[in-house]
Amino acid sequence: MHPFCVQLAYFVILSLVGHLALKISKPRTAGSFRPASLDIFFTSVSSVTVSSMSTMEMEVFSNTQLLIMTSLMFLGGEVLISVLGLYLSRSYFSKQQTKESRVTSNYHSPPKPTTFSGLEIDQKPPNVDLECNINSSDNDQSLKLNSIKCLAYVVFGYFLVVHITGSILVAMYISLVPSAREVLSSKGLKIQTFSLFTTASTFSNGGFVPTNESMVAFKKNSGLLLILIPQTLLGNTLFPSCLRLSIWVLEKITRKVEFRYILMNTREMGYGHLLSFAQSCLLAITVLGFIMVQFILFCSMEWNSGAMDDMNSYQKVMGALFQVVNSRHSGESVVDLSIISPATLVLFVVMMYLPPHTSFWPIKQQEEVVSGTDQKCKKQRKSLVHAYGNVGFSTGYSCKRQLEPDSLCKDACTGFVGRWSNKGKFILILVMFFGRLKKFSINGGKAWKLY
Length: 451
Fold this sequence. Notes:
Blueprint: H1 3-24, H2 37-48, H3 63-76, H4 78-107, E1 114-116, E2 119-121, H5 128-176, H6 178-187, H7 191-203, H8 222-234, H9 239-254, H10 257-264, H11 277-302, H12 313-326, H13 342-353, E3 359-360, E4 366-371, E5 374-379, H14 422-436, E6 449-450
Parallel strand pairs: 3-6
Antiparallel strand pairs: 1-2, 4-5
Helix pairs in contact: 1-2, 1-3, 2-3, 2-14, 3-7, 4-5, 5-6, 5-7, 5-8, 5-10, 8-12, 9-10, 9-11, 11-12, 11-13
């Protein structure tokens, strides 16, 4: 099956299972409130596709439902999906290698000895060079197979270390800082559940937070924001660069030939997040450059705005940094997006439009095309398609912004999609699915290179 069909089936099945689990478990506000089945399915799809679009207030969900959503984001994140892809590719590659070895063993029979003067002398086979090349090729294939296995272990270890460390740090901060602890206490949230949920959401760039107002409730807790900022980068835009750095460190410590092979043969590994040294450096520079530009523009336009009220200078700096980092592509918000300037919103839209692995290349890359004995160089072409990300920023819904005031209108801490019709929600469900699989429509998942 095509990888697109495999992943689409995976996300659809996982969404259906999540929908069933969320529907069986009772919400926190039991009684007359019964969430619609489509809203529950929408929440499940949004969790699996890490889109963070919500049609219901987050504080409606019980502790059990929050843990279910944590599992969905955990299983639907890009890093874990890529680990499963590595295991599948290793299994396929191992089967192919077994078939080739069987064909080779049947084709090459051992040479018969030749008798001369009563002595048996081994006759040199005429294809000894070919057999040597085959043996060398077998060794290379075996090394590649072991390297894919090591890479899968490294990525999975990277995944676990960030989640475990992040959850512990978030839980420690909330336990030690009274203001953060009071926020959870007033909302009836458990520290352990909040830590696991927020870490899984931040690393997978899901954008969900168990509070109705996202991270606005913690806008003065700069230490918590500082803990979450690296998790956002480690799970998305800086993942390829940090992964290569991790492999380089492991190679220096262990001196294993598999790690060296991974670093020297990035394309042969067939792992889209594994980049060369130059690509990793350029990606890191691009990401940090985008953050710096956004940070300067955001501070210059919003420093004295109502979105930054009741915050001192340090809290404004950390809040601005947290906000611009989340514009690619987490979706957690520390300010009310409905009251920031339109120019800032346009800036965020541009950042959401760019794929996470967009990098700046100062020199146009060229590739060699070999045809017989002639070698031709041609410029690598890219087809720019309309990308749609899974960020989940929303300006919310407020009755004050109605053109025709309605007395029955009630303010809700949900996304604007919460007021859409069922048909509109269903269309967004399709968009979330294919937005999660957008890598198959952008030249096989290759990143954009800005020249």
